[in-house]
Write a sequence for this structure.
């Protein structure tokens, strides 16, 4: 029986907020559809070394879950970057080639190895977003670039099957391939009633098994502090989610503190002062509590918060020095994959007393 948003108050609220935001969107011109949303190069952690990431964000019609009956996820506003209507396959390929042409010389001359991340605000394996023939041409071009050692794409599990996994594995030859999956939490109640993900932990385990059978890695995205969770609840949920992903032998765990995205239910709650993005102290606490050095020897743990240090992103107080200090700790931890990097905190800020008082108050309720 097909699920209806009318049976889920959260989904109805998400759809209401999203509909208002989408009404303000304009149609992208043909010329704009030939170029990606964005692309960049920066330092990143590869499996066994510090290297560079090359990220390309393609503009497609957007996430089928966000456009469908259930309205999408409570924290996500990526549909705002989408075209909404279908994008010509030739234009999607043009977007990829535009970014690649601009950065290929830099990549080939660099001493660093690279990880390529292709994002499209939805599912890379959704044929309605990115047709199979476009994926095949992307694979062919990437297979000829030796400096790119790893490739990461994202997909809802609805579109992951053995045929698509086998094809990307065969095409990428000796490159490490990972599929990013938005698990968000290992708690089905939180994922369904606070995030509206449309995914169970058992569903994730099935997709993980399929990927492993095809020699394809999995990158699990975890959400730190979904809407309707307080700070202590968010810490507890994130710690248990990290531990479970490690126990399931997920290749990479990406801990993503919620950032307030335009057109999302999270933004609606934030504007009403009913939600605050997580504290940096909470993220560091989660990582220290959930991970051992032995874990890091077999599972890559990453975190690259969007909007860090701003009102919309993860922050302590809004003192720039305080947040930059925490970001440096996090960056060093991710690049070196050494647990002791989380203890290198020489900066002290008065806001930590306020943070600790808030956690103590929550624990006493």
């Amino acid at each position: 029986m097909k699920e209806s948003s009318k049976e889920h108050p959260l989904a109805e609220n998400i759809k209401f907020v999203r509909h208002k935001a989408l009404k303000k969107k304009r149609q992208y011109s043909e010329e704009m559809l030939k170029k990606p949303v964005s692309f960049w190069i920066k330092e990143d952690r590869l499996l066994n070394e510090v290297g560079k990431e090359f990220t390309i964000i393609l503009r497609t019609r957007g996430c089928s879950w966000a456009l469908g009956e259930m309205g999408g996820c409570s924290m996500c506003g990526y549909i705002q970057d989408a075209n909404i209507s279908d994008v010509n396959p030739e234009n999607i390929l043009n977007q990829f080639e535009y970014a690649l042409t601009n950065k290929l010389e830099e990549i080939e001359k660099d001493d660093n190895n690279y990880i390529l991340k292709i994002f499209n605000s939805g599912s890379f394996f959704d044929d309605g977003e990115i047709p199979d023939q476009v994926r095949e041409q992307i694979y062919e071009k990437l297979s000829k670039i030796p400096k790119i050692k790893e490739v990461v794409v994202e997909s809802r599990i609805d579109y992951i099957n053995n045929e698509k996994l086998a094809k990307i594995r065969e095409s990428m030859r000796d490159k490490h391939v990972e599929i990013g999956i938005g698990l968000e939490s290992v708690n089905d109640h939180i994922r369904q009633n606070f995030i509206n993900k449309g995914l169970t932990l058992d569903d994730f385990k099935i997709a993980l098994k399929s990927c492993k059978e095809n020699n394809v890695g999995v990158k699990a995205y975890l959400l730190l502090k979904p809407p309707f969770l307080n700070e202590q609840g968010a810490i507890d949920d994130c710690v248990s989610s990290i531990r479970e992903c490690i126990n399931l032998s997920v290749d990479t765990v990406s801990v993503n503190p919620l950032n307030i995205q335009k057109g999302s239910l999270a933004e609606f709650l934030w504007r009403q002062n009913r939600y605050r993005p997580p504290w940096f102290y909470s993220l560091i606490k989660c990582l220290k509590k959930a991970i051992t050095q032995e874990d890091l020897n077999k599972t890559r743990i990453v975190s690259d918060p969007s909007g860090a240090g701003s009102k919309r992103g993860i922050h302590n107080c809004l003192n720039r020095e305080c947040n930059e200090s925490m970001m440096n700790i996090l960056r060093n931890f991710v690049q070196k994959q050494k647990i002791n990097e989380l203890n290198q905190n020489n900066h002290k800020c008065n806001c930590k007393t306020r943070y600790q008082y808030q956690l103590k108050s929550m624990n006493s309720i």
Observations:
- Residues 308 and 327 are 8 Å apart (CA to CA).
- The radius of gyration is 20 Å.
